[in-house]
Write a structure and sequence with these properties.
The protein contains two helices and three strands; from the N terminus they run E-H-E-H-E. With about 80 residues, the chain is α+β, with helices and mostly antiparallel strands.
């Protein structure tokens, strides 16, 4: 199975990289961009008997390894 996970900063955590990207968008003429939040994207290949087992395994991996649960949230975007 192939899965994708997105890890982003929690909404109340300052995102200086996102702010810098948003400012750069304005400088380049993309004034329509009002906010940017940056994050991490992971593609993971795994062996699991079914999507439910894959989701449990991915949740454990995301909580223990891919994200800092104090300042970040994660979402499992897809399992195929």
């Amino acid at each position: 199975m192939k899965a994708t996970i997105c890890v982003t900063l929690k909404p109340d955590v300052l995102d200086p990289q996102g702010q810098a990207i948003q400012k750069a968008c304005g400088t380049l003429g993309y004034g329509q961009v009002s906010q940017v939040r940056q994050g991490k994207f992971f593609e993971i290949d795994l062996d699991a008997p079914n999507p439910e087992a894959a989701k449990r395994l991915l949740g454990e991996i995301a909580e223990k390894l891919l994200s800092n649960r104090i300042i970040e949230n994660y979402r499992i975007l897809s399992i195929e």
